[in-house]
Amino acid sequence: MSSFSSSSPFNWESQEKSRTNLIKKVRSFETAYTSEDGRTMPEDYEEGIGLLKPNNNMPTSFVPDYSFSSNANLLNVTEATEMLEHTPQTTKETKETINKRPFRWKQWFTKNTVPEGTPRRIYVNKPEMNEQQHFMTNAVSTAKYNLFTFLPKFLYEEFSKSANIFFLFISGIQQIPNISPTSRYTTLVPLVIVLLITAVKEVIEDFGVHKSDSELNARKCKVYDGSRFIEKPWRQIKVGDICRVDNAQFFPADLILLSSSEPEGLCYIETSNLDGEVNLKIKQALPVTATMVSPAQLATFEGMIESEQPNNRLYNYDGTLTTKDEDGNTKRFPLDPNMLLLRGAQLRNTSWIYGIVIFTGHETKLMLNSSKKPTKASNVTRKTNRNILYLFAMLVTMSVLCSIGNYVTSTRDGANLDYVGVPITQLGKEVGYNILTFMILFNSFIPISLMVTMEIVKYIQSTMIDNDLDIYYDKTDTPAVARSSSLIEELGQIEYVFSDKTGTLTCNEMEFRQCSIAGLSYASHPDPDKRPTSDDDAHGQFSFEQLEEHLQTSQHKHIINEFLTSLMTCHTVIPETENGTIIYQASSPDESALVKGASEVFGYKFVARRPHSIHCIRKGTEEEYQILNVCEFNSTRKRMSVVLRGPDGKIKLYCKGADTVILERLAKGSNPFVSATLSHLEDYACEGLRTLCFAMREISNEEYTEWSVMYDKAATTLVNRADELDHVAEMIEKDMFLLGATAIEDKLQDGVPDTIHTLQEANIKVWVLTGDRQETAINIGYSCKLLTEDMELVVCNEEDQISTKKFLQERLGQLSAQMQQDPLALVIEGRSLTFALEKDVEKTFYDLATQCKAVICCRVSPLQKALVVKLVKKFSKSILLAIGDGANDVSMIQAAHVGVGISGVEGLQAARSADFAISQFRFLRKLLLVHGAWAYQRLSKMIFFYFYKNVAMYLTQFWYAIFNGFSGQTLYESWTMSCFNVFFTFLPPMAIGVFDQFTSARLLDKYPQMYTLGQRNEFFNQKRFWGWIFNAVYHSAMLYFLGMAAFADDSVFTNGHSGGQWWVGTTIFTATLATILWKAALITDIWTKYTFIAIPGSMVIWFIFLPLVSYVGPLLPVDIFMEYYGIIPELFGNINYWLFFIIVPLMCVLRDYLWKYVKRMYRPQSYHYIQEIQKYNLPDYRPRMDRFRRAVNKVRKIQRLKQSRGFAFAQNDNDQSRLIRMYDTTRQKPSG
């Protein structure tokens, strides 16, 4: 029988009633005071080792605060990213995100609100009680639409466009009897077709997102059903379920850790998807649940969790578990972030864990940190809508003028117009109707097909990106994907790139590349230019194979042995054996790389760890080292040491750390290799490698006995224990001998340095926003060429708002006073960034940051990334791009104008929320410089040409109105007018928009400075718009008035017949079409077979259409095309028709050709030169100053490296000593 039977003194109902008054929280994380890293909790707890530190002052009676804010009565600071606004915790954004629930009828009619301070109660192994609370499902949706929201959302977006509102208005007034001079459906039907095509495109794009969501929701996870674990898809996981997650799997929801395969319920997790940090975090279960390591033990587990309500604070959690302890007494145990496993994180180096679900779906902290997917519109689209408004104003003006002209004509000549049937007294009333009539007549002045043509062109351009083999990654079989074709032209106008570091710039892999031992440098792949001239050449570079020889033959072989032994022993790595292979678990990727290098490259293998010893195999010989003490790494000490007793019985201290702290602790006068090692460190740092120095000393038994007493005393003190331990460590970390140094490569993705350099040449500013530590971020900045040797680093690490504001103002003042010569790079830490984003400081921060050549924000949380992007967007009109790979980058990606996700690796949620997805950062180069530049230039030209052709065609109707008494009579046959945009001029804009190239991809990549044309809006600005409009007005006037002059007496036939309206109108239409097509040919930069089909082919279509409708039209049962009856012989057999068709278009386009000639010859722009280089295949002459600049940069690099030699180490500041003593890897682990 269950220990929680109804007869038990533990009664749920009475317990719940007794908790109506929740009192002050005793042990919770005060979010009003951030930790030193800019987060909202102490770093110990953030790194996940808080429970490993005993807290004797912690009260046994733990009463948490369950309100949405961890501290309801304190200053409301929800996150280091909330800009310290004094607002209630439940922000509008958070509410919107929480409300993104799956469809449930009850929720449509009732509002499910939770009173403040009310906890979420989750019953263990009682699914029926949890079902009654109607918790949210675990299915997530990041799509823009669903079945119910598609129609209203789509119509709202489409009718927020000026053109669609106008055509809806025209369609409406066409239904009024006796108003429209055309059919009542001539505008409505094209509008519906345009909306349908756009809707299909939206559905196709959103279907891809739904498909990705479905794949995510269909992932499998093992869920406990009361007796065993069964596999279920993620979407079926519910609050209260107990899940089993195996190694390398992602957590399907927010879980509380119950137990694991590791001692005392420990587990490692990787949170790079959440905060960008590569070092592993450690979580630990409550002791009362850590012993439940089998399904049978879980069957006896009952209790209740009282949890805080869902919120977006990644690093805070408060709750209690009420259950029975070992003695059978009911107790409440505190739950804190140390036991919280967040959705999006990954289990690492741990065989399995059991966890109970507390938050699901859109209520998980990951999803609450992901803002709602916004609706983005490109800059070109916004300007196009504005230009349509200008055309609308012109159309209204024309309609009003024509209506007034009609009124004046009717008033003046009323006696001669009695056949019209409008009494003089009704003329005033007719003015309003006439305005509507002329608006319908001129409505094609605004091109209805422009929007759908833009959508088609963008879609085709996006497929070109999808099928580009240059940005296809064959290793993962991942092509680029344009998820949102509506933003494709934005890629050609980017001025800021905001990039994540981990997984975006780097591969998240550490590799042991080089080392310095006894003054000699060794490398895995030696530089041929540094071939050593002798066996003791300190300036040469030996191979790792030669190191093996030196280990046997060198006079310093004992030093080499000690160095390799220190790699093998001085660490906190835990080895695990899987299928005969040793896997090294390490919270620090640096340590893992060093131990793996010593094992695989040099044969110094670390094979097992026990609570007080480690087992190693050194060159085939098994050895055991007794671990006496561990002096841990922290950000202040910048080093770690181990004191161990070797197989020979000697006690030795091995120490590793930053060169600055190691060098000052060396023995005086007995370290001959310091100078050579420092020189090697500078070389390593020049290559962007992460460096560590290694030193040692032998300790006598007497000295160790005396020191260990002081160490034990410091380890058990209750006051300032950490400081006391650091002080004791100082006493033994002295008089050391320098063994050498290591160089680890935080492996960059291929082509990252070249890509960043090229983007900077294109005047694109690159900002790196990372959750990693400052030293690591700076190191990577130099590796990827974001930071260069001639830059001065401005490092902001201030601890409060006042000092942050003062620091930023002082540096900005120096810039303003022109006291700064070298370019600047700003490095700001997360805590300082919190204050920099305050209302009274943000403008200063923005002004300083935008004047720096590079910006690195480190230790930032996901929402801080989004806030930085929004800050630049707020004060700048620049187009911003954000690129990342993890869930922590989603908010930043959605906040930017263009979001790019790195795809191809499992668990990378950013690609699902992004507008474009690529698999490597280097592909961003072609995506922007080539596809972006082409798309922007093509669309700009196509849109302006569209405006031009419609204005040129339909303005001739306005000129004709002047001659027909403003009667509303058309110059052209009505179906011919309807076919103008659909058949006769549909292909040229398509050809321009899809195939035109103002220069080749090779030259765009070779000359990245060309990209600035898009940043300056060179191809799409108001000056160009009005230039095209005035050109269209000029052409229309030339065509119409020359036609009227040529056919003024209407005697164009030798037999005395007159031409008539339709003959003249068809002739002018032919000439107008020829002029428009000739203009298209003039602006085309590259001719392909499709261009030939589109431009001359459109003229052919007209000459096929005209005879066809002339002869077939009258035979149809419906009276259409009667105006063309018998016109073909009169047209094609008349020399005047052909002369007008050839001469007038030539006269129109001649001015354009001369203007183009003058611009290219006397006012050339940069792309004109590049076009000539391409045409004549001219060689590229680079300035010889480059060699001089490189020499100067090398000198500056050496000067900088004397101050910083590349130290970076990602070890956590936590109780590693206690952690490693929990492990005995020789024992069998529970299978779960």
Automatic annotation (TrEMBL):
<feature type="transmembrane region" description="Helical">
    <location>
        <begin position="1025"/>
        <end position="1048"/>
    </location>
</feature>
<dbReference type="InterPro" id="IPR018303">
    <property type="entry name" value="ATPase_P-typ_P_site"/>
</dbReference>
<keyword id="KW-0333">Golgi apparatus</keyword>
<dbReference type="InterPro" id="IPR032631">
    <property type="entry name" value="P-type_ATPase_N"/>
</dbReference>
<feature type="domain" description="P-type ATPase C-terminal">
    <location>
        <begin position="911"/>
        <end position="1165"/>
    </location>
</feature>
<feature type="binding site">
    <location>
        <position position="772"/>
    </location>
    <ligand>
        <name>ATP</name>
    </ligand>
</feature>
<feature type="transmembrane region" description="Helical">
    <location>
        <begin position="1135"/>
        <end position="1154"/>
    </location>
</feature>
<feature type="transmembrane region" description="Helical">
    <location>
        <begin position="388"/>
        <end position="408"/>
    </location>
</feature>
<feature type="binding site">
    <location>
        <position position="502"/>
    </location>
    <ligand>
        <name>ATP</name>
    </ligand>
</feature>
<dbReference type="Pfam" id="PF16212">
    <property type="entry name" value="PhoLip_ATPase_C"/>
</dbReference>
<feature type="binding site">
    <location>
        <position position="889"/>
    </location>
    <ligand>
        <name>Mg(2+)</name>
    </ligand>
</feature>
<dbReference type="Pfam" id="PF13246">
    <property type="entry name" value="Cation_ATPase"/>
</dbReference>
<feature type="binding site">
    <location>
        <position position="656"/>
    </location>
    <ligand>
        <name>ATP</name>
    </ligand>
</feature>
<feature type="binding site">
    <location>
        <position position="885"/>
    </location>
    <ligand>
        <name>Mg(2+)</name>
    </ligand>
</feature>
<dbReference type="GO" id="GO:0005524">
    <property type="term" value="F:ATP binding"/>
</dbReference>
<feature type="binding site">
    <location>
        <position position="500"/>
    </location>
    <ligand>
        <name>ATP</name>
    </ligand>
</feature>
<feature type="transmembrane region" description="Helical">
    <location>
        <begin position="435"/>
        <end position="457"/>
    </location>
</feature>
<feature type="binding site">
    <location>
        <position position="770"/>
    </location>
    <ligand>
        <name>ATP</name>
    </ligand>
</feature>
<dbReference type="GO" id="GO:0005886">
    <property type="term" value="C:plasma membrane"/>
</dbReference>
<feature type="binding site">
    <location>
        <position position="888"/>
    </location>
    <ligand>
        <name>ATP</name>
    </ligand>
</feature>
<dbReference type="InterPro" id="IPR044492">
    <property type="entry name" value="P_typ_ATPase_HD_dom"/>
</dbReference>
<dbReference type="InterPro" id="IPR036412">
    <property type="entry name" value="HAD-like_sf"/>
</dbReference>
<feature type="binding site">
    <location>
        <position position="771"/>
    </location>
    <ligand>
        <name>ATP</name>
    </ligand>
</feature>
<dbReference type="GO" id="GO:0005802">
    <property type="term" value="C:trans-Golgi network"/>
</dbReference>
<feature type="binding site">
    <location>
        <position position="591"/>
    </location>
    <ligand>
        <name>ATP</name>
    </ligand>
</feature>
<keyword id="KW-0460">Magnesium</keyword>
<dbReference type="GO" id="GO:0016887">
    <property type="term" value="F:ATP hydrolysis activity"/>
</dbReference>
<feature type="binding site">
    <location>
        <position position="889"/>
    </location>
    <ligand>
        <name>ATP</name>
    </ligand>
</feature>
<feature type="active site" description="4-aspartylphosphate intermediate">
    <location>
        <position position="500"/>
    </location>
</feature>
<feature type="binding site">
    <location>
        <position position="500"/>
    </location>
    <ligand>
        <name>Mg(2+)</name>
    </ligand>
</feature>
<keyword id="KW-1278">Translocase</keyword>
<feature type="binding site">
    <location>
        <position position="633"/>
    </location>
    <ligand>
        <name>ATP</name>
    </ligand>
</feature>
<dbReference type="InterPro" id="IPR006539">
    <property type="entry name" value="P-type_ATPase_IV"/>
</dbReference>
<feature type="binding site">
    <location>
        <position position="690"/>
    </location>
    <ligand>
        <name>ATP</name>
    </ligand>
</feature>
<dbReference type="Pfam" id="PF16209">
    <property type="entry name" value="PhoLip_ATPase_N"/>
</dbReference>
<protein>
    <recommendedName>
        <fullName>Phospholipid-transporting ATPase</fullName>
        <ecNumber>7.6.2.1</ecNumber>
    </recommendedName>
</protein>
<dbReference type="GO" id="GO:0045332">
    <property type="term" value="P:phospholipid translocation"/>
</dbReference>
<feature type="binding site">
    <location>
        <position position="501"/>
    </location>
    <ligand>
        <name>ATP</name>
    </ligand>
</feature>
<dbReference type="GO" id="GO:0000287">
    <property type="term" value="F:magnesium ion binding"/>
</dbReference>
<feature type="transmembrane region" description="Helical">
    <location>
        <begin position="1090"/>
        <end position="1115"/>
    </location>
</feature>
<keyword id="KW-0479">Metal-binding</keyword>
<keyword id="KW-0067">ATP-binding</keyword>
